[in-house]
Design goal:
It is a single chain. The chain is mostly helical. The chain folds into two domains: 101 residues, no CATH class; 77 residues, Arc Repressor Mutant, subunit A. 56% of the residues lie in helices and 4% in strands. The chain contains nine helices and three strands. Strand 2 and strand 3 form a beta hairpin. It is elongated, with a radius of gyration of 48 Å. The N and C termini lie far apart (127 Å).
Length: 246
């Protein structure tokens, strides 16, 4: 390899320098001769140090890497050396592709910028869009109805959301006892079949709990087969209540 003369500041890093050395000496990038490449690389590093130039840590790190690769190549087994060579070759190939893409982008884009004060331009306030007449009518009706929408809504607007029918637990206790007065036992789920509102369902459920708590009815079974039966005390209480009402 012939001696090279160049300025280090033209290189952007150690990979750029290695790629230049490989291209200059027509080496195969996939079969790098580490000994020859290391000699040229170290020659340039030493020249920089003799000239009292600041050597970047990246260049020194690459120098140590090349020295290590050369040391490994002297060992009897070269498995590690091949892995190190492939890693360096891959980095050089990737860097080479990046340089090609950067050169193509540099041809397409120019970074020369001319800066000047912004020119005073008279704004054009004319409305240039075209709309269907039906859209204009809809927009007018929407704007004209804003005054009505600004008024607070009437209570009737919330009747379906807020208001609900009040169902007392006592009324549902009477309902359950009436169902049990003659038949003595009914299916638990049948007590809720005619109930549609949530208030009815909750009140009926609480009514059954109150009757069970007062030992006036009992629940036998579980799940869909559960039945509600009228106890003796509950029957007497119901009959006495009926006689008082009559």
């Amino acid at each position: 390899m012939e001696k090279l003369s160049y300025k280090l500041e033209t290189f952007e890093g150690p990979l750029d320098l290695l790629l230049y050395l490989i291209t200059k000496n027509k080496l195969d990038i996939c079969d790098i001769q580490i000994s020859e490449l290391l000699d040229q690389y170290m020659e340039q590093i030493n020249a920089m140090q003799e000239a009292d130039m600041d050597v970047s840590s990246e260049f020194l790190e690459m120098a140590a890497r090349l020295v290590y690769m050369k040391t490994v190549s002297l060992l009897p087994k070269h498995e590690e050396m091949e892995a190190l060579r492939q890693e360096l070759t891959g980095q050089l190939l990737e860097y080479q592709e990046c340089k090609k893409v950067a050169a193509q982008l540099a041809e397409r884009f120019s970074y020369n910028i001319y800066v000047r004060e912004p020119a005073e331009i008279e704004p054009d306030k004319r409305y240039k869009r075209h709309h269907d007449p039906r859209e204009l009518l809809k927009a007018y009706l929407t704007a004209a109805g804003r005054g009505k929408r600004a008024a607070p809504p009437s209570p009737q607007s919330f009747s379906g959301i807020v208001t609900h029918r009040i169902v007392s637990v006592a009324s549902q206790i009477v309902y359950v006892l009436r169902r049990l007065w003659k038949v003595k036992a009914v299916e638990y789920e049948s007590l809720f079949i005619e109930k549609r509102d949530k208030s009815d369902l909750v009140a009926t459920f609480l009514a059954v709990l109150e009757l069970v708590k007062g030992k006036r009815v009992r629940i036998e079974g579980e799940g869909g087969t559960a039945t509600v039966k009228l106890m003796d005390g509950g029957e007497r209480h119901w009959k006495s209540k009926r006689s008082e009402e009559q």
